[in-house]
Write a structure and sequence with these properties.
Blueprint lengths: L5 H5 L2 E5 L6 E14 H8 L4 H7 L13 E9 L4 H11 L6 E6 L8 H29 L13 H9 L12 H24 L5 H7 L3 H7 L4 H24 L5 H16 L8 H11 L16 H23 L4 H22 L13 H6 L3 H20 L9 H20 L13 H27 L4 H7 L4 H24 L9 H26 L4
Antiparallel strand pairs: 1-2, 2-3, 2-4
Helix pairs in contact: 6-21, 7-10, 7-19, 7-20, 7-21, 10-13, 10-16, 13-16, 14-16, 14-18, 16-18, 17-18, 20-21
Length: 544
């Protein structure tokens, strides 16, 4: 894709005399992107097969570029021109080849609407509360006066102490390694989405990207989608861990309505800050996100990453049934979880076979039919969440008990767990190679059972680390430095994609891909996401 010169186009602004009306005409530039579907190009040049051969030839002399969805070029048109009419003119000029004209921009600033003024007022009130609460905190400290806790809710001083506080001596019932696991998973998500931008943004050296995707290093990026399964597993684990603690305290009673009402209200209050009502999908489908059903919409996604919240909330709403079942019947209830998990696995497997999906689902497949049918649906994702709940139940059975594991079995279990981890990450290596023909059955087996394997590996890692059999791995995962990122992980997940949109949206030329450049952009994304999350946590109370 040739982006042209964006700034030069939108800054065109000059007057000219019209020979027809003798009136002065003001010409203002408007930048648009014209896209031609690749199939249209192939049909146009079929008599001359050079281009077709270029995209479909054998990999014998080296990797060939993968066919892009469309060829694109930046065009500069007068502001008064309608993009649909321009598309029609270009289509006629190219002898019927369909041209799409999208993403038009001008140098104009959008007018503020009523909802913008409402948002300004709300944020103004929040700013005033921040100032008053922070001043109250500072003044009472200076004057050594007693403090009222409710007046500290918006204090930047109080909240920063709370955010950056590190517990160097956690209690025996704290699962310390979870901080490291959650933090590394969040880093992995940002890393994977960094690669995504190279796949959707114009790249100067496309063949280099294709060749790089055949390396083992690329799999670290592409299999990053498994990190979300870590979050589902931890969600189930913590629901069980905290839920059984509450059930023991209340002797088998749960105030389900209040617990779920509080959770929904908490999520709603955070989602409100993230809506972009200037975005057409948000204007039309915000209610789906607020009802937590947006993971089943096929288009017009408002906030893309909130599909995870929808799945997590739907599972949270049914969790009391599972908790009460395990509390009442214990191990006898486990077959119910096994059968439910088998149904989900079978559903994913059948979907792959029916639709003949081949290859490994990766970050490349975002916004595809395959992603919608096998990745974001709750019925396809709850297996590892159920494994988290089951493991949480098992973990509570060993609470305050001494666990003794012989060295041989400990090493054997660690070897198995690490083998599973590396198999999930690097197992698809062969399917990435030129000429490899993947079957739907192979792809279905990997996608359905890799999540199960990941849950098994996480179970052992957490169990061993919690009971003192983690060695250096536990020392690393339980290091206090992870506590801060762990606290910020929810906010980082919700904001990182927006941060990346801002970063990459400011690029006005095609990107050049290299490992070094990719890592540089990852650390840029991670750093800005971390800073944005700290700011939002301190100002908007987005701490989970």
């Amino acid at each position: 894709m040739d982006l042209g010169n964006f700034q030069q186009c939108i800054h065109i602004d000059f007057s000219t005399d019209s020979s027809v009306t003798t009136k002065e005409t003001n010409i203002v530039g408007k930048y648009c992107q014209a896209r031609i579907p690749i199939q249209e190009i192939i049909n146009l040049v079929k008599p001359h097969n050079a281009l077709v051969d270029y995209y479909t030839r054998s990999h014998v002399d080296g990797p060939a570029p993968e066919p892009p969805i469309a060829l694109g070029i930046g065009i500069c048109i007068p502001k008064v021109c309608n993009r649909k009419k321009i598309a029609g003119i270009l289509t006629n000029a190219l002898k019927g080849v369909k041209v799409e004209v999208n993403n038009c921009s001008t140098n104009d600033r959008p007018d503020l609407e009523a909802i913008d003024y409402v948002a300004i007022c709300i944020f103004g009130i929040i700013g005033l509360l921040l100032a008053l609460s922070t001043f109250y905190d500072w003044y009472t400290d200076k004057m050594e006066l007693p403090k009222k806790q409710e007046y500290l809710a918006f204090s930047l001083i109080y909240n920063s102490h709370k955010l950056f506080a590190i517990n160097l001596k956690p209690g025996p019932n704290s699962i310390n390694c979870l901080h490291g696991i959650r933090s590394l998973s969040m880093i992995w998500v940002v890393l994977g989405h960094t690669l995504l931008w190279y796949l959707i943004f114009p790249i100067m050296n496309l063949r280099t990207v294709v060749a790089w995707k055949q390396t083992a290093m690329a799999l670290v990026y592409e299999t990053g989608i498994i990190a979300v399964d870590t979050f589902f597993f931890l969600s189930g684990l913590l629901i069980a861990w905290m839920g059984f603690k509450e059930l023991e305290r209340t002797k088998g009673k749960l105030n389900v309505i209040m617990i779920q009402f509080y959770e929904v209200l908490w999520i709603w209050s955070k989602l409100a800050y993230l809506f972009d009502y200037t975005n057409y999908p948000c204007e039309k489908t915000w209610w789906r996100t607020m009802l937590f059903i947006n993971n089943y919409e096929n288009d017009l996604t408002c906030i893309g990453q909130t599909w995870y919240l929808a799945v997590d909330m739907q599972l949270f709403l049914v969790s009391p049934i599972i908790l009460l079942g395990l509390y009442k019947w214990g191990k006898k209830f486990m077959p119910v979880l096994v059968v439910a998990s088998a149904l989900s696995i079978g559903c994913v497997y059948a979907t792959y076979i029916k639709n003949d999906y081949t290859g490994v689902l990766s970050i490349d497949d975002i916004a595809t039919d395959r992603m919608a049918k096998t990745y974001v649906g709750t019925h396809t994702r709850y297996t590892v969440w159920l494994m988290g709940i089951a493991f949480g139940y098992i973990l509570t059975q060993f609470k305050n008990k001494e666990v003794k594991i012989p060295m041989f079995y400990n090493l054997l279990a660690w070897s198995a767990a690490l083998t599973i981890v590396f198999s999930v990450i690097f197992g698809p290596y062969n399917s990435q190679q030129p000429g490899y023909e993947s079957s739907a059955a192979e792809a279905a087996t990997y996608d359905a059972f890799s999540r199960v394997g990941w849950g098994v590996a996480l179970s052992w890692i957490i169990f061993a680390c919690h009971h003192g059999y983690g060695g250096v791995i536990n020392d690393f995962l339980s290091h206090p430095v992870w506590q801060i990122i762990s606290k910020l992980s929810f906010c980082m997940y919700m904001t990182h994609f927006t941060v990346q949109v801002i970063i990459y949206g400011n690029f006005q030329t095609s990107l050049y891909f290299s490992n070094f450049d990719a890592m540089g952009k990852f650390w840029t994304s991670f750093g800005f996401t971390l800073m944005a999350s700290i700011f939002l946590v301190l100002t908007l109370k987005l701490l989970r």
